Each structure stands twice: as C-alpha cells, then as structure tokens.
Amino acid sequence: SANTMWGGRFAAGPDAIMEAINASIGFDQRMAAQDIEGSRAHAAMLAATGIITDNDAAAIREGLLTVLSEIESGNFAFSTALEDIHMNVEARLKEVIGEPAGRLHTGRSRNDQVATDFKLWVRDQYDAAIAGIEALMKAFVAQAEVGADWVMPGFTHLQTAQPVTWGHHMMAYVEMLGRDLSRFRDARARMNEAPLGAAALAGTSFPIDREMTAAALGFDRPAANSLDAVADRDFALEFLSCASICAMHLSRFAEELVIWSSAQFRFVVLSDRFSTGSSIMPQKKNPDAAELIRAKIGRIMGAMVGLFTVMKGLPLTYSKDMQEDKEQVFDAADSLMLALAAMEGMVKDMEANVDALETAAASGFSTATDLADWLVRALNMPFRDAHHVTGSLVAMAENKGCDLPDLTLDDMQTVHAQITADVFDVLGVKNSVASRMSYGGTAPTRVREQVARWKEVLS
Ligand code: ARG
C-alpha cells in the first residue's frame, strides 16, 4: 500500500528493492536525539507564533519525549517502510498522541529537518574532537616536561641528523595538535547556523520565527539563504577535512612508536595496557594500538574523499544523493575519537628508555654540524669550507670505526692543523642540544618555555 506520509498520489507501494535502497533508518537512527530536539524546538516556535495551538504544541513536545525514551531504552520498532528517522519518529508520535502529531510538520520539510539533525550531530563531534585533542595535548606536554633535557637523535630521511631533546620532539606534536584544535574550532564557529525553517528549499509562507528555533538549538543564527541551507554539507566536509589532517598527525606519531618500540631502536617501552602478544611467538609484545591508529587515516580520509565525491556536481538544492552523507561521517567520527583516546593512553603510559636515547643520539656522527659550527666560530672559516673539513673528519672516524669524539687531537690536526682541544667541548650531545638556544630550538631552556606556554593555554 502507498506511504502514509507522502503516498497521496501513489496507487502502489514501493518494490522491496526500492525500499532497501531508499531507507536510511538503518543508520540515521543514530540522530534520533537530534531529530527530537529539533522537532521540539520547532513545535514550541509554531505555538509561539500562533501557527498551532499551545495545547497541540504541548502534546507534541511531551509525546516526543515519550518517543525518545522508547528509543533510548531500546523499546522502539524501527520500520524500513518509514524510510528514515524523521518519519519513524513522527509516525510513532501519531500513535502516542494522535491528531496533533500531524501538525508538527507545518512550515518544515525533511530537507531542512535532516540538515538540522545532521548539523547538530556533527556539531557534537566537533566538540568531542576538541576535547579529545586537548586531552592528548596534555599527555604530550607531560612527557615533554619530564624529559625536557633527555637527549635523543633527531632524524631527517630517518637518518641520524642532529641531537634533539625528548621534550622538543614531544612538543612538536603539541604544535601539530594545536593547529588541529584551532581548525576544528574555526570550522565549528563557521558551521553554527541553523537550516531549520528553510523548509523544502524556498522558505515558507507561515510566519515562522527562525531566530527562535536557532537560539533554542544553540545555533548562532539562522542560515541566511534557504536554498543554501538545505543543499549545504560543508559542515560535514570540513569536519572530515579537519579529522583527516588530525588523523594524519596521529599516524605519524603512531609510526614513530612502532619504530621506537622495536628491538632495534628500544627508544620506548609501551605499556602492557596498549600492547598485545603473539599466539605463537612467546617473546612478542606488539604495538597493535599504534598500528591501528596509523591505519585509521585510511577510513577517515576515505570518508572525506567519499563525501566530496557525493557532493561534487550536485545541482541545487537537496538531492537524495545527500542521504549518502551520514554513514561515512559517523564512521570517521567514531574512528577519530577512538584513535585520539588510544593515543592519549599510549602517550601517558609510554616510558622512554633514556639511556638508549642518549646512546643513539651520540652515534651516527650526530654532532658533525656542531663541529663545523665550531670551525666557523673558532677559526673564522667560511661555513662551506668548515662543512668540507668536517666531512673529512667524519670519513676518518668512519674508517677507524669510531665516533667523532673518539678521534684524537693529532688525528684531527692531520685534516686541519689549527684545530685545538677546545673542539671536544662541542662534540658531546648534551652540549650540542644546550647550544641550540635559537627561538624554537631544541635547547632544554627553550623546551621548558614552550611547556609553560602550552600548560597555560591548555589550563
Ligand atoms: N533520509 C533523508 C536523508 O537522509 C531525509 C531527507 C529526505 N528528503 C526528501 N526530500 N526525500 O537525506
């Protein structure tokens, strides 16, 4: 039989396959609370403007709470024939309160309704992401504070480059996450305009009060163009873009944890709480959480590309294509929140192997740049020449199978006669990092300043 919500002109009901491809109730039931919140605000506004009676609005608002509690307690029979959460809720409302339920949809369409529901849902995810990022930042700052002067190798090309401090490395992630935070906040401020009252696409002839519903739902203002309001999914695309960049940052640290926790590096020990064993190899302790965080970018960025592809080329305004917006956003949001929480746990629990870090920092000729800088300062050599002389000294050490500080002064003077014993002062890793006092540099003093700054920002 024909649909009771829109079937007036239809003689026959839909094919089963049509019902299957058309229905979104399997996933959009996740927006039940938002749908009911939006409808309650709409009903209150319809009464305040005299479009429906106070009695009808009260019955609708009360009845919607009954429906919400049925859904929340799992006592709700979702129907595929009723397509989506909007019609499932309204149909049940009719069963609960009778005739007034039919007045709820006055001056409204499912087009502005779904845009409103989805915006409310995504807005909560912006807030959750912001909270999750802040918590993770605090964990990184705490690591930086304890290890502000632990020395470790800094890498370029994953080759030992120059010694850096553990705190500096941790604070690099605080900077990245700080940008993520500001991206999510910017986008949240931009998206906070209410589609409700745009109706199907053109607005409505009823004297609705869009300021009132916008305020009731925590929006800053109503969206100014009804066509745009029902056609816009930028708020979801921006969420996915912010989430993708954030997930990319998480994947980089996850990769470092995988490398650092290996037997070949031994830079960190991950806690048992965030590791797993092997069913065949008894010695194994695998960094599974880090690997899964490293992988989450795949589905999060996949969702972003997926929704961009759905939206591109859609003519204004609403098209049913847009029903394909939700599942990928739901999945991406779940994945991001889980990745943030897991990363926070791992960062809090991880223990740096301070000796292994320092040993690694001192190997691989990591203070060659310090040596070249010394030649510039002490002997007034042009840097390019100093670079060349230092390269010869590195080659000499490599031939002897030793590190730079193990060369004797005599060895060094065969390469350049004016080198003096003072040079040995700059070859130690502690001196190396302490000397990098330029703003943003790795010196423990500078790291502690950044730790203090971020603790202030995050407090
Ligand atoms: N389930 C639909 C969606 O998610 C709701 C909007 C339907 N609007 C319409 N005109 N068919 O997009």
TrEMBL record:
Instruction: Report the GO terms under cellular component.
Output: cytosol
**Which Pfam families does the UniProt entry name for this protein?**
ASL_C2, Lyase_1
Q: Enumerate the catalysed reactions.
A: 2-(N(omega)-L-arginino)succinate = fumarate + L-arginine
What EC identifiers does the entry list? 4.3.2.1
> What metabolic or biological pathway is this protein involved in?
Amino-acid biosynthesis; L-arginine biosynthesis; L-arginine from L-ornithine and carbamoyl phosphate: step 3/3
- Family to which the UniProt record says this protein belongs: Belongs to the lyase 1 family. Argininosuccinate lyase subfamily.
Q: What is this protein called?
A: Argininosuccinate lyase
Give the originating organism.
Actibacterium mucosum KCTC 23349
